[in-house]
Structures are given as C-alpha cells and as structure tokens.
Amino acid sequence: MSRPHASYLRPLIRVMIYVLVIVVLFAMRDRLNVRGLVQRLTAPTAADTTLVIAGSTLAPTLVDRMVAVYHTEYPKLAIRVGGGQTTAALEELVNKRADTVFLSRPPLPSEQKIFAKATGDTALWYPIALGAILVVAGAGARDTTVALADLRTLASGKPAAGYRKLYVPDPNSGLWDAFLAKADLPPAGDTAPAGVVFLKDDATVADAVHADASGLGLASSFALPDGPGKHGARALWVRTDKGPRPMAPDPEDIASGDYPLWSYLYVGCRPAGGAQAAKFVTYLTSSHGQRQIEHTEFLPVQQVMREIYLNRSPGAASPPGHEEGTG
C-alpha cells in the first residue's frame, strides 16, 4: 500500500539538495574564509576604538591634561578632542558627532526635550571639578574687592559702585547661567540687561576690563587657569552678604563654600553613547580620575565641602530634577 505523503517529500528533498549544491559552489567560488568572516563580525568597530570629545574650550588645560593621562592608560584608543562651549558641545552630542562632552552647566529642560526626541532618552551629566567664577577688573582698578550686592545690581542692568558695565563671556558658554544662579538672580532672558555686554570668551572679557576702567567682568577659572594677569587684569575678592570679610577665589575658600561665586565643570554623554564614552565618564568620576584632576592642580568634586550632585552611575538615566547631598 503506497504512502500518500511520499510524493510531497521527493520534491522537497530535491530542492534541499539543489540549495546545498549552490551554497557549496558559491563558497568555492569566493573561497569563503569562515574564520575570517567570524573575525570580521566580532572585530571592534571604529566606535569601539575611537573616543570623540567636544567642549574643550571651557577648560582647555584640564581637558588636555586629563586626555593625555587617559591616553597613557589606553594607548590603543584614538582620541579626538574638539573645542566649543556648552551649547555647541551639546549640539555635537545630540547629533552623535561627539561621544562625550564637557559642560559649564547641566543641560536645560528644553535641551533635554531635544535629546529625548532625537535619541529616545535624555543626556547624562556628572560634575567632576569645581572652579571659581572670577570677578575681573583692570590691573589699575581702584578696588581690590567688590560686594556681591553690587554685582547683582550690575547684572540687573544698573550702575553700581562706580561701574557701569559688566562684561560676560558668550552666554552659550554657560558661565552667565551659573553666575545668575549663585547670585540668586532670575534665569537669563532672551535679551541682555542694559550694561551687560557679552563677548567672545573669557580672555576677551579680561582684555575688555583692562581697556575699560568703568567695567567689571566675569570669567571662569577653568578657562583662565593662570588667572587674568597676562591680559592686564586681576581678580577681585568678593564681599558676601554674610559678613564684611572679602573672600578670595582660591581653592580653600571655594572648597569650604566661603567664596560665593563658583561653578562645576561637568562631563556628559548619551545613555546609549557607546562603551568608550561610558568608560571615559566613569574614569573621570572615579576616585582614580578625581585624584588625577587634583594632580592637574584643579579642584575635584570629591574634595569639596559643599553640596554636590549625587547622580546615578553612568549608563543609567539621570533626571533633570537630580538629588543633592553634602560632599
């Protein structure tokens, strides 16, 4: 008695044989190297062997030194460092032209919305070092100190203490936002107050106050690590609201919280920005990386006796409404 399904099996077997023959012929024709194929599939891609950094303009000396130290630990890693300030660095990050960035402020809520729309998640950011917001005047200025209250008045667009202008670096750098927060002033609007003059960068601010005795300026100690002296300017001590004794923008008064005008330097990345970005961010926030920052004569956040941001580990989402604690 014949089996009714046998007629269906024969054509199927023939097709399988034909397919096997074709595969063998193609393998012989192309001399397929299975081992080489596996190696190509598992070999590191360019993204695994390259680290692209943006935002070095904010702290050129610190970034250069930390990249140099990091490269000695990972000599096979190709590291490309680009300039730019906070806004430009975030643009590089969201457009995936940079793996990690340095920032003078956290991403704004509006910027996080852009990240979420473009990448499906918000950016991560972590403080790594602390610096002074310097109040600079010409080297021949009559004053050696300035009251924080007078700086608030100048920043609001009114003359104060004999000064008529306040020179500030490009608002895209993030320093202006940091100053307003530390001076307990409202966030920046779309229009600069009268008397507030935005210039290209911190060095240009120092040059401006050297040429204009009626103006004070704001500059970052990260951008001017050797101080404003070579630009013909000097940093003033700040008299706070708490007492008459002026506070110096030196590491001791910054770390203790006595100097009122300070800002963090942050490192940022995308949550799914790749292994090299995560490794670099983890390195900078680790105890080892923090010691290296200290060796470069900058102030690491782990030695700061003030409130610091307690972000979750790299790779986990960090909401804009972060927790704060005392370091």
Model description:
The chain is of the alpha/beta class and 327 residues long. The chain has 2 domains: 46-129 and 263-326, D-Maltodextrin-Binding Protein, domain 2; 132-262, Periplasmic binding protein-like II (D-Maltodextrin-Binding Protein, domain 2). It is 38% helix and 22% strand. It is built from 12 helices and 14 strands. The radius of gyration is 28 Å and the shape is elongated. Residues 1-5, 23-45, 306-310 and 312-327 have low confidence and may be disordered.
Keywords:
single chain, 327 residues, alpha/beta, D-Maltodextrin-Binding Protein, domain 2, 12 helices, 38% helix, elongated, disordered N terminus
Number of helices: 12
CATH topology of the largest domain: D-Maltodextrin-Binding Protein, domain 2
Number of E-state strands:
14
Low-confidence stretches: 1-5, 23-45, 306-310, 312-327
Report the sheet-strand fraction: 15-25%
Helix fraction bin: 25-40%
Shape: elongated
Describe how the helices and strands are arranged:
Blueprint: H1 6-30, H2 34-42, H3 46-49, E1 50-54, H4 60-73, E2 78-81, H5 86-94, E3 100-103, H6 109-119, E4 124-138, E5 145-147, H7 148-155, E6 165-169, H8 175-182, E7 196-199, H9 202-211, E8 215-220, E9 233-239, E10 246-247, H10 251-256, E11 262-269, H11 275-285, H12 287-295, E12 299-300, E13 307-309, E14 324-326
Helix pairs in contact: 11-12
What's the quick description here?
The protein has 327 residues and is α/β, with parallel strands linked by helices. Helices cover 38% and strands 22% of the residues. The chain folds into two domains: 46-129 and 263-326, 3-Layer(aba) Sandwich (D-Maltodextrin-Binding Protein, domain 2), CATH 3.40.190.10; 132-262, Periplasmic binding protein-like II (D-Maltodextrin-Binding Protein, domain 2, 3-Layer(aba) Sandwich), CATH 3.40.190.10.
